[in-house]
Structure formats: structure tokens, C-alpha cells
């Protein structure tokens, strides 16, 4: 079996470090691992398979001989370095939003549209965290009864905004108990014991970019340009794990029992739906896990043909690192690398 | 001007104590104040207008001579004591869910259906906290363009579950930083850095009672039995202030500009809607305030005639104590007491 040379750009970040853990856990066939970051983070040491590696500053030469480059260093670095890495012969799996909506870049969730990796031209985009977990839950239902519209409200963890945002929640909460003032560095507002209805920047239609990602990326991943998605994305004082209240209207009726049966057998989904025994997914329980957890499935009361459900996943894993490594696995499986 | 004898049953609770503060702040014409609670809480002292009062155990005699009794001691105590208080000549304003859906009990939000107090038969019900803030925001829109359906997701503060739940969040968060284990006493699950999609008990249709309150009470308060309300109610690690992501479909089109104009002039509403300058309502900023704060108004992308918005209010104030005292003020204004 062939082993591959893997580079991680943004290795010191919250997602980058999780990528290392996921590559280890899933026994990805790694020959050489190369950890890359900006000048600021270069020199730090990170462990992979029990060996310490020094993080190198990103450069064109750093991609020499690399088979797969996992990028998670923000959109502007992706735009700068992805063409360079591709030029050097690597396939880039990019976690930023830089290329997601490009017509010649596949946007892939392996449980939903694995075949799309086959038409890549060097870059494959990893979708937005909130979108990934939602489409893993919705696609199996859509294949059975067409979904017309989706109304989703998110309860997103601070780790989605990176390592500094994790520190923000921790430090601001401690400061609260000490009667001190702390202003978050990474988040747009106070997060301790608060809810911030603002993730990523506001656009001209008064939706945030995060909310529009859920609209646009869902359609592209599910190959369903007719589905209407209305999202409200809010940050809550949670470290790991995004929760989503998802309401759908389908073209034909679907009962909660049918939906449970579909999701019980759906790839990457774990059904946790026994409300009478207080069984439903919650972020503190999904943290560290790779699947998408679905519960609270019930007939929606606003639509004749509607369902409501509660979808939770670890945003750093299935929402980012795990999905990216799964895409790399697809490249191996399809003999594309 | 006449002054009134007021009793508060459940005076030592989170809502009961807020009722005392709101009566003071709004200069309600109080002659005598009588603080009542269960045997367990009797004997405690609470201040009103600078004077300390001892909490008395509730008894039939305790309602002798009372004009208005504010109840916030849970449904079973309301069922036991409301008929007694009415028998003694008091008008009961009940914050529990015990009588809300009774056909001969008005369910009143003064900004929405003030006239309903006029047909009371001794008991007037104060609605569910999440419902109150939602109908204050939706009713002015409904009067302009009929609302067909509402999809709402809540982000509810622990104070909605009472004083012990406030302690739960505080103690569990502290324990987290000390590496200790703490299990909440009042909440059905861990709340520190978590989200719990479970408020009140689960019913046969797999909705919670809290979610069905939003369905049923909205229709009764707004006199709109045709509106369909689908709710997902979740508890978040916030002390004070419920947030709601509200999506509506209207019969005719309504633009965000029209909705802003309507809400700017709506009773009890404060519009905080300037996303480009990071202005939107958040729970830590509405805590201690009596109004309903609305922001993030935008054309909903899932419906042709739809709007989305973000609605936040202090659940102990407008969601409970303030609304109850406003009902008492209506009784005075209409000469019903």
C-alpha cells in the first residue's frame, strides 16, 4: 500500500491540530508529514505519531513532493498558497471559504457527494462547519422525499472562530467570576453568559456571510439548487460542538418514524432520539466524536409536510478536520493521488 | 388616588423578587404589601420601598383584604391557592401555566390584548416568558400583514427555571475551572458550556410543554387561531435574557423596511437593528430592562413572503414580573379593582 506525503498549512491552529489527531486516529497512510504555518507560528513543535515536528514557514519549496496539502489558515492564505501548492503537484483540500463556490472546485461532504472529488482540478473545498453537519442529516431525507425549504438556527461553539476565541470564552468567564473586565480578542462581542447573533461579516442583504454559506453551500453539495435555506447563525458560550434547530418542508409527507428509519441507516449519522428518556444530542457529549448526531425528530407544526430536528456535531472534527481527512481518503480510494 | 393591597405568592423566588422591584420602579399604588410563600420559605425577610417585610406562610386568611394577588409559585400552588384568593375577593394574576388555556381565563400581554382583562372572572393568566416577547414583536406585524406561520428557535436563560437554576449555572461553571464535577439541581442536564434542547417536560408529540406553550398561547393572546407556530426551545448558558430566532411567513409581502417602521413605533418594542455597525440585541445587554428588543430584521430566504428577526428580552421582567405588574396597572386603569 502506498503512503503519501502530507502537508498541513495552518498546523498550529485549532483545526490544524485536530487534523493531526484525525490523521493519526484514522491511520491515514502518511509517509512524510510537513507542518506549515505563517512566519509568526513557525518554529513551534507539534507531535504526530509520537514524533515531534517543527512547524516550518510556508514557502513554494515547502510543497515540493507533497501529495495532499490540507489547508486551514484562512481565506487569504488559501488564495495565496493553493495555486502554488497545486503548481508543485499537490492536491489541496482547503478548509477556507476562498474557493468553495468556484464552479471548477468541488465542494465535498463524503457522505453526500463523494463522486464530486473526481472532477477536481487541483483544489477541493471543505465546506463550512455548520453546513457539513446539516447536509449529512438532510441529504438522506432529501433523497427519499424532496426538501423544498430549510429554516435553521445555529448555536455555534467558539472554537469555530479559532484558538483565540476558545481563550476568549475561558478568560472572559474567569474574569466574570473575579469581577474583572475582559474583552474578547477574536469574537465581535462579549461571549461569557451571552449569545451573539453575528458570525463572520454582515453582507448587503443583512445576512452574515456564515448564514449565506449555509444557503449557497447546501445547494452546491446536495446538487439541489432549488432548495431554499434561511439561516440564523448565533454564537453561544460553548467550547466545542455546534447545535442546530433544523425545520424542513418536504414535497411529500414524511413521518418522524420514516425519518428516524432513514437516519438510523444513514452514513455518518448517529440517531440519539429518545426524548422520553432525556436522550437528545448535546455539544458537551459530541465533542471529540466524528459523527453527526440527530435527535428531537418530530412532525413540524408549521407545515403540512414538515419535520423538525436537532443536529449536533463537533465543529472542529466533522465540521472541519475529519471531513477534510475523509476527502483525502476518497482520493486514495478512487486512486486519484 | 386609591392605593391597593397587594399579595405576592412565591415572593422569595426569582420572579417574586423581581415583582417587588418592578412594583417599586413603576410606583404602583401599593397600600399594603403581603409577601407569601410555602412554609419552607416563610420567615425570610425581603425589602420593599426601603422597609423589611417578613415572608408569611400562605393560608386562606393571608388573602383577606387583598385586592390583587400576584402568583409565581408554580402550577400546583396556583391550582391550590388561586380559587382561595378569588373566594376572599382578590384578583389573581397568575404567572404559572395552570390556567393559561382555560376558556374563562384571559391570557394577557398588555401591548397585544389589553382589553381581555375586562372579561376576567377572578383569575388573569400571565403568559409563558418566551411567548410574551415573541408576540410583542409579532403582533404589530400581524396587524399589518397577516402572519401565516412562525418558526422559532429559542436560546433561553437559566433564570427561566428559577433561582436554583441560576445557582446551577454559576456553580457548574466554577466547578469546570476547578476540575470538579457538579450536577445541576434544577436543570435536566449539564448547562455549563452546553446547550440543552429540553425545557419543561416532553409531551406525546415529542414537543416539550414549553414549545407547545409557544404554539397555543401565541394563538390565544393574538386572537389568531389560524397561525401555525413551530418552536424549538433550548437552554443556553446565559443567566438573564431569552433570545429568539423568529422566521415568519405572511399572507402578503412585507419588506424589512416596512417591518422596521412598524416595530419602531410598536408599544414595548425597542428596535436595535444596525448590523453594519454590530448593533443587534443580546441577552447581557437587555438584562434588567422591561422592553422587547428586536434586530437582525431581513427578508427571509426560505419564503416568498417572509421575514426573519432576532428578539431578545429579560425573561424575569417582560417575560414574567413586568408583564404581571402591567396587567395590574390595566386593572387600575380600567377601574376593575
From TrEMBL, chains A, B:
Binding of substrate occurs at: 156, 235
Q: Where is the active site?
A: 129 (acyl-thioester intermediate), 242 (proton acceptor)
Q: What class of enzyme is it?
A: oxidoreductase
From the UniProt record, list the reaction(s) this protein catalyses: L-aspartate 4-semialdehyde + phosphate + NADP(+) = 4-phospho-L-aspartate + NADPH + H(+)
Could you tell me the superkingdom of the organism this chain comes from?
Bacteria
Q: Which terms under GO biological process does the entry name?
A: 'de novo' L-methionine biosynthetic process; diaminopimelate biosynthetic process; isoleucine biosynthetic process; lysine biosynthetic process via diaminopimelate; threonine biosynthetic process
Residues that, per the record, bind NADP(+) = 12-15, 40-41, 159-160, 315
Stated EC number for the protein is 1.2.1.11
> Which protein family is named in the record?
Belongs to the aspartate-semialdehyde dehydrogenase family.
What is the official name of this protein in its record? Answer: Aspartate-semialdehyde dehydrogenase
Protein source organism: Persephonella hydrogeniphila
- Lineage, opening ranks: Bacteria, Pseudomonadati, Aquificota, Aquificia, Aquificales
Amino acid at each position: 500500500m502506498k503512503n503519501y506525503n502530507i502537508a498541513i498549512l495552518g498546523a498550529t491552529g485549532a483545526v490544524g491540530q485536530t487534523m493531526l489527531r484525525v490523521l493519526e486516529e484514522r491511520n491515514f497512510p502518511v509517509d512524510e508529514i510537513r507542518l506549515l504555518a505563517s512566519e509568526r507560528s513557525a518554529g513551534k513543535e507539534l507531535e504526530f505519531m509520537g514524533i515531534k515536528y517543527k512547524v516550518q514557514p510556508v514557502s513554494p519549496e515547502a510543497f515540493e513532493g507533497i501529495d495532499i496539502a490540507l489547508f486551514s489558515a484562512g481565506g487569504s492564505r488559501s488564495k495565496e498558497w493553493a495555486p502554488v501548492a497545486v503548481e508543485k503537484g499537490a492536491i489541496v483540500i482547503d478548509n477556507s471559504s476562498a474557493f468553495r463556490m468556484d464552479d471548477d472546485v468541488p465542494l465535498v461532504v463524503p457522505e453526500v457527494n463523494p463522486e464530486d472529488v473526481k472532477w477536481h482540478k487541483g483544489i477541493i473545498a471543505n465546506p463550512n462547519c455548520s453546513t457539513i453537519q446539516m447536509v449529512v442529516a438532510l441529504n438522506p431525507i432529501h433523497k427519499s422525499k424532496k426538501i423544498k425549504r430549510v429554516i435553521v438556527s445555529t448555536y455555534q461553539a467558539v472554537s469555530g472562530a479559532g484558538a483565540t476565541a476558545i481563550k476568549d470564552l475561558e478568560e472572559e468567564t474567569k474574569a466574570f467570576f473575579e469581577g474583572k473586565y475582559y474583552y474578547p480578542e477574536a469574537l465581535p462581542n462579549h461571549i461569557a453568559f451571552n449569545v451573539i447573533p453575528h458570525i463572520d461579516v454582515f453582507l448587503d442583504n443583512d445576512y452574515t456571510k456564515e448564514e449565506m454559506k449555509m444557503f449557497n453551500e447546501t445547494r452546491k453539495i446536495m446538487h439541489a439548487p432549488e432548495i431554499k435555506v434561511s439561516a440564523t447563525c448565533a454564537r453561544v458560550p460553548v467550547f466545542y460542538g455546534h447545535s442546530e434547530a433544523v425545520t424542513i418542508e418536504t414535497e411529500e409527507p414524511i413521518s418522524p418514524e420514516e425519518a428516524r428509519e432513514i437516519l438510523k441507516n444513514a452514513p455518518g449519522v448517529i440517531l440519539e432520539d429518545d426524548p422520553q428518556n432525556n436522550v437528545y444530542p448535546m455539544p458537551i457529549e459530541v465533542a471529540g466524536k466524528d459523527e453527526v448526531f440527530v435527535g428531537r425528530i418530530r412532525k413540524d407544526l408549521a407545515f403540512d409536510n414538515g419535520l423538525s430536528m436537532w443536529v449536533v456535531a463537533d465543529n472542529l472534527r466533522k465540521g472541519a478536520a475529519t471531513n477534510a481527512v475523509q476527502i483525502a481518503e476518497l482520493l486514495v480510494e478512487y486512486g486519484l493521488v
